[in-house]
Design goal:
By secondary structure, this protein is of the alpha+beta class. The protein contains 20 helices and 21 strands.
Length: about 675
C-alpha cells in the first residue's frame, strides 16, 4: 500500500517490499518443489481399509482444503479421484481431511482452510473382492506461499490390496511415439535462455511503519489536547526544579516515559501472537472485525468533528495526577507521563485506533504494531525533551487557537474516509457488491469535497470559532485537497486512467467494478491464450512476443496487471509494440483427446498432460526452467530471447525499461 499522501498512509500503516533475484549462471534455480506426498494402507478389519495420504510442506507453504472457495480469485482445492471398480470395492464416505479452522490467507485476502507443515487425508473403503484388487488414486493440488502459487500438479498412488503394497507414481503409464511427438512440439528451442532464479522475498519494512507512526505522533502534537501541554509541562520542569540540571533530567525522563508507555501498549498483542502466530490475522482481518472497525472509525470521525468527546474516566487521570504529586522523583515523573497519556486520549485515541486497526489488518501483526507505537510515542516525547534543552525555542511556538480545532476536523475527514476502507474489506470477502471500486472512489470524492468546503469556510462544525480571513495554511491544504479530489475523478471511469496507481491497494481491485469488461485480456489488451496462435499474429504484425505465464489464482499477476501494466507508458508499449500471449498454468479446462499425452520429466517421472494448465505449466518448465508466476519473456519470431526474463516487477519504470530494451533488440535484428 503506497501513497504520497502521508496522512492517509500513516493510518493504513503498511509497506510491503519484494525483491527478485536473478542468477543467469545457475540453470534451473527458478524451479521449486515445496511439497512431498506419501501414501500408506491401514486395515481396520477383514473388509474395511483406510487409504492414507500424507503431505509434507516446507515452511511458509500452504496446501488448500478440498472445499471450493467462492471468491473471485481463489486457490485451487485439493481433489482426490479413485479408479472405479464397483464389483471389487466401494468408497465409504468422502475423503477426510484435517479438521482445522479457516484462517486469513494473505494471498487471497479471505478466510480459507489451508494446511501447513503436514496434512493427512484418509479415504475409507469397503472391499468386496480382494482378488487382484488394484486401486489407483490421484491427488490434484496446488501449493502457495505468501506471494505466489505454483502450477497445479497431480500425484498418483497405486494400492495393491491383496499384497498390502503401495506404489507411487504413474507406474502404468508409458511414453508412446505420440507422447514423444507432442512433447517435442512443446519444446520451442529457445535461444539464449539462462537459468533464472526468482526468489520472492517478503519482508516487513518496519522502519517505514516506525516513520509513519512518528508522523502520526507529530499530527497528535498539533491537536488541542496535546499542543497546549508542551509549554506548560516544560516550564514546570525547567522552573520548578531546584537546579537547571535536575529540571533537564526530569524533562528528558518525562519524554522517555511517554515513549515507553505507548510502546508498552502493544505488548498484549505479542502475548496473543506467541500463542499462535496466525491468531492476529485470524482475529483482526475477518468480516466481523472489519465492520467493527468501520463503526469505530465513524464514531471517531464525528468525535473529531466536535459532536461529542471521547474521554477516559476523569477519576483515572485525577488518580494518576495525585500519584505524581505524592511520589515525586522518577516514579512521580512516570505518573506525570501516564497522566498526559490519559488526558490527551480524546485526541490521540482515534489516531491510536487507526494505527491498531491498520497494523493488525495487515500481516505485520504485533511486531509491526510495536514499531508504529514506538514511532508515535517518540514523536510525542521529543518536544518535551528538546524544549527543555532549548527553552528559548518555546517563544517560536504558535499560540493556541482555532487552528487546533481545524486540525481535529481535518483528521475527522481522514477517519471518515478510512472507515470505508474497512467496510470495503468486508465487502470484498463476502462479495456483497456494496462497494464496487467506482462506488468506493465516489465516496472518497464526497468526503474530499466535504473537507474542501470546510477548509474554505463553507462548512461549519460545533467547536469552530467565528469566521476569519482564509489563512495561507488552510488555503494550501484546500488546494492540495482539490488536487486530490480531481485525481480521484478518473477512478469513476472505465479507462486505463481509472487505475489510480498512487492509491494502489486502497480502493477495491479493478476487476471489482460496476462496468462490464469488453475483452478477457487485462485492461482491455488483446491477449492470445494459445502460444501458436499468438506467434502467428506476431509474425503477421512483425512485432516481438511478450510471453506472460500467469494464473487465474495468481495474486501477484493481478497486481502486475493493475499496478504496473496500467502505467501509461507500459500500457502503450504493450499495446503498440508487442503481441501479448497470456498462458494460464492453472486452467483446468480439458484438452481435446488428441492433444492429451504423457510427459516424461527430466527426473524420470511421468506426468499426464490432460488440461490446458498442465500443457502451459509444462511448456514453461521445459523451455524456461521456471515454474513460478508471474513470469515474463520477450521473444522474436525465431524464439530468440530479446533480454533476460523477469518475474514480479512492482516498479513500472523498471518494467517499461525492460520492455523498451526488448523492442530495441528486436528492431536491431
Amino acid at each position: 500500500m503506497r501513497s504520497p499522501l502521508f496522512l492517509i498512509v500513516f493510518f493504513l500503516g503498511f509497506f510491503n517490499a519484494q525483491a527478485q533475484i536473478f542468477d543467469p549462471n545457475n540453470l534451473g534455480q527458478g524451479m521449486e518443489d515445496p511439497i512431498e506426498w506419501e501414501a500408506s494402507l491401514e486395515q481396520e478389519n477383514d473388509s474395511v481399509y483406510q487409504l492414507v495420504f500424507k503431505a509434507f510442506l516446507e515452511p511458509g507453504w500452504h496446501l488448500y482444503s478440498q472445499e471450493e472457495v467462492k471468491i473471485d480469485i481463489a486457490p485451487i482445492p485439493t481433489a482426490f479421484t479413485f479408479s472405479e471398480a464397483p464389483e471389487k470395492y466401494e468408497l465409504v464416505g468422502p475423503t477426510v481431511e484435517p479438521d482445522v479452522p479457516a484462517l486469513y490467507d494473505a494471498v487471497f485476502e479471505a478466510d480459507i482452510t489451508y494446511f501447513e507443515k503436514e496434512a493427512v487425508f484418509k479415504q475409507k473403503i469397503r472391499v468386496l473382492d480382494a482378488t487382484e484388487l488394484l486401486i489407483t488414486a490421484e491427488v490434484y493440488f496446488s501449493v502457495c506461499d505468501d506471494e505466489k502459487c505454483l502450477p497445479p500438479e497431480t500425484e498418483r498412488f497405486s494400492f495393491n490390496i491383496g499384497e498390502n503394497r503401495v506404489e507411487e507414481g504413474f507406474t502404468d503409464l508409458e511414453v508412446s511415439d505420440k507422447d514423444q511427438r507432442l512433447t517435442e512440439a512443446l519444446n520451442i528451442d529457445v535461444k539464449g535462455v539462462g537459468g533464472v532464479d526468482i526468489a520472492d522475498e517478503k519482508e516487513h519494512n518496519y522502519s517505514t511503519i516506525f516513520f509513519l507512526g512518528f508522523i502520526g505522533g507529530l499530527i497528535a502534537l498539533l491537536t488541542p489536547c496535546v499542543f497546549p501541554m508542551i509549554p506548560l509541562t516544560v516550564s514546570f520542569f525547567t522552573k520548578g526544579a531546584k537546579t537547571r540540571r535536575k529540571g533537564l533530567v526530569n524533562a528528558i525522563m518525562y519524554g522517555v516515559f511517554i515513549f515507553l508507555i505507548y510502546l508498552l501498549l502493544s505488548l498484549p498483542f505479542h502475548l496473543l501472537d506467541s500463542l499462535d502466530p496466525g491468531i492476529l490475522n485470524n482475529i483482526s482481518t475477518n468480516t466481523t472485525l472489519n465492520i467493527i472497525f468501520f463503526v469505530i472509525f465513524i464514531f471517531f470521525a464525528f468525535s473529531f468533528f466536535g459532536y461529542y468527546e471521547i474521554t477516559l474516566p476523569s477519576s483515572w487521570s485525577n488518580k494518576m495526577d495525585d500519584k505524581a504529586s505524592s511520589f515525586g522523583g522518577v516514579i512521580g515523573v512516570f505518573f506525570m507521563a501516564l497522566t498526559l497519556a490519559l488526558v490527551s486520549f480524546s485526541c490521540t485515541g482515534p489516531i491510536l485506533g487507526s494505527l491498531l486497526g491498520s497494523s493488525l489488518t495487515t500481516d505485520g501483526g504485533a511486531t509491526q504494531l510495536s514499531f508504529g507505537m514506538g514511532g508515535f510515542g517518540l514523536a510525542l516525547a521529543l518536544p518535551f525533551a528538546l524544549f527543555a534543552l532549548f527553552p528559548n525555542w518555546l517563544n517560536s511556538l504558535p499560540k493556541s487557537g482555532g487552528w487546533l480545532n481545524s486540525v481535529k476536523v481535518v483528521l475527522g475527514f481522514i477517519e471518515l474516509a478510512l472507515a470505508f476502507k474497512f467496510l470495503s474489506n468486508a465487502d470484498l470477502v463476502q462479495h456483497w457488491g456494496l462497494l464496487k471500486r467506482e462506488i468506493f472512489i465516489g465516496i472518497w470524492i464526497v468526503v474530499g469535497l466535504g473537507l474542501l468546503l470546510y477548509l474554505f469556510g463553507l462548512l461549519r462544525f460545533p467547536h469552530d470559532g467565528p469566521k476569519t480571513k482564509l489563512g495561507k495554511g488552510r488555503l494550501l491544504l484546500g488546494i492540495a485537497t482539490l488536487v486530490f479530489v480531481v485525481y480521484l475523478v478518473p477512478g469513476l471511469t472505465n479507462t486505463p486512467a481509472a487505475n489510480l496507481k498512487l492509491l494502489s491497494g486502497f480502493p477495491p481491485p479493478l476487476f471489482y467494478s460496476i462496468y462490464e469488461k469488453e475483452t478477457d485480456g487485462p485492461l482491455g489488451l488483446k491477449a492470445y491464450k494459445d502460444f501458436e496462435e499468438g506467434v502467428a499474429a506476431a509474425k503477421a504484425e512483425n512485432k516481438p512476443i511478450l510471453l506472460d505465464f500467469t494464473g487465474w489464482a495468481c495474486v501477484n499477476c493481478r497486481k502486475m496487471e493493475e499496478q504496473v501494466w496500467s502505467d501509461p507508458e507500459v500500457f502503450d508499449l504493450m499495446q503498440d509494440e508487442f503481441v501479448l500471449i497470456s498462458l494460464y498454468v492453472d486452467d483446468r479446462k480439458e484438452l481435446p483427446k488428441d492433444q492429451k499425452f504423457n510427459y516424461q520429466k527430466p527426473t524420470g517421472g511421468i506426468k499426464e498432460i490432460k488440461t490446458i494448465g498442465d500443457k502451459w505449466a509444462t511448456f514453461q518448465t521445459l523451455n524456461f526452467r521456471n515454474n513460478s508466476q508471474p513470469f515474463y519473456v520477450l521473444l522474436d519470431h525465431n524464439m530468440n530471447m530479446l533480454n533476460q526474463p523477469v518475474g514480479y516487477t512492482p516498479d513500472s519504470e523498471e518494467f517499461a525499461a525492460w520492455l523498451r530494451q526488448g523492442v530495441e533488440e528486436f528492431n536491431a535484428r
